[in-house]
Amino acid sequence: MPTVQQLADLLGVPCPPHPERELHSVNSLDNASETDLSILAADKYVSQYKLTKAGGVLAAKKIRFAKRPEIATFLVDDPDLALVKVLKLVAPPIPQPASGVDPSAVISPTAVIGDNPQIGPHVSIGHRTRIGRNARLHPGVVISDDVVIGDDCILYPNVVVRERITIGNGVIINAGSVIGTDGFGYRWDGAQHAKIPQIGTVVIEDDVEIGSCVCVDRAKFNQTRIGRGTKIDNQVQIAHNVQIGQFAIICGQ
C-alpha cells in the first residue's frame, strides 16, 4: 500500500508529517481509521476533521483550519480530483477475460476482430461485424450483424448490441445494457396498434460510458446519437432519435 511520501509524490505536493506511514484504504472522516486516507473538501466538515481518526487527509487549500500534527494532511487545490488519482492507485483490479478468444465464443466467419482481443465465454458476434483493437468482451455479450465497434472498448457481461450499430473508441458499456432495441413506435389502425418499423440506427461516439441496465433505442429513421465523453448512469432509457451532445451527464432513471 502507498506511503504518505508516495502519495505526496503522486499528487505533486509537499510531503506532510509521517512520510513512512502506510495508508491502506479510503474512508469518510467520521468512519476512517489510522490506516485510512480521508477527504476534507468543504468548510462544513472541519468539525469532523477535528475528531477524525484518519491517518491522512486530502484537504482543500481554500479551507481555513488548524492542521492536526498527528494526521498527514495533504493540501491540494481540489481534493476530489486528488482523490481520483489515489483511487486509481489503490483500487482492486476488475477481473477481465483472458487474452484471446474463449473456445465457447461463437463468432461469424465474416466478422473481423482487431489485435489483442479478450473475448470471454459464450460471447456471440454476428455477420460482417467489425471490432477494433484491444476489445474486452465479458461473458455473455451478444453483438449482432453489421455492427462497427472501435478500439479499446469494454463490454461487460450480458451486454446486447443489436444490428447496424456504430460504437466509437474507448467506450465502456456496463452489464445488462441493450443498445439498438426498436424505438417505441405504434399507430392505431382502427383495430390494433400497428408497429412502425424502426429502420434507423444508434451511434455512440468516443469515450462514452454507459451504466448497467441502460436501454438506448434505435431511431425510427436516421440515428439516435450519444455524443463524445458522455456518461450515462444505471437504469436510463434513451428514446429513439434522441440526440445527446458531448460530455453530458445523464442520471439514473
List the helices and strands and how they pair.
Blueprint: H1 4-11, E1 25-26, E2 36-40, H2 46-51, E3 56-60, E4 72-76, H3 79-90, E5 100-101, E6 106-107, E7 112-113, E8 118-119, E9 124-125, E10 130-131, E11 136-137, E12 142-143, E13 148-149, E14 154-155, E15 160-161, E16 166-167, E17 172-173, E18 178-181, E19 186-188, E20 193-195, E21 201-204, E22 209-210, E23 215-217, E24 223-226, E25 231-232, E26 237-238, E27 243-244, E28 249-250
Parallel strand pairs: 1-2, 2-3, 3-4, 5-8, 6-9, 7-10, 8-11, 9-12, 10-13, 11-14, 12-15, 13-16, 14-17, 15-18, 16-21, 17-22, 18-23, 21-24, 22-25, 23-26, 24-27, 25-28
Antiparallel strand pairs: 19-20
Model description:
- By secondary structure, this protein is mainly beta.
- The protein is built from 3 helices and 28 strands.
- The longest helix is centred in the middle third of the chain and has 12 residues.
- The mean pLDDT is 96.
Fraction of residues in H or I helices: 10-25%
Round the Cα radius of gyration to an integer and report it.
Answer: 24 Å
- Overall residue-averaged pLDDT value: 96
**Sheet with most strands:** 8 strands, parallel
Structural class: mainly beta
Shape label: elongated
What is the number of beta strands?
A: 28
Which regions are unreliable across 5 or more consecutive residues at pLDDT < 50?
none
Counted by DSSP, the helix tally is 3
**DSSP strand (E) fraction?**
25-35%
Placed side by side, the strands forming the largest sheet appear as 5-8-11-14-17-22-25-28
Give the termini separation.
37 Å
Keywords:
7-stranded parallel sheet; 253 residues; 8-stranded parallel sheet; 28 strands; mainly beta; 3 helices; single chain
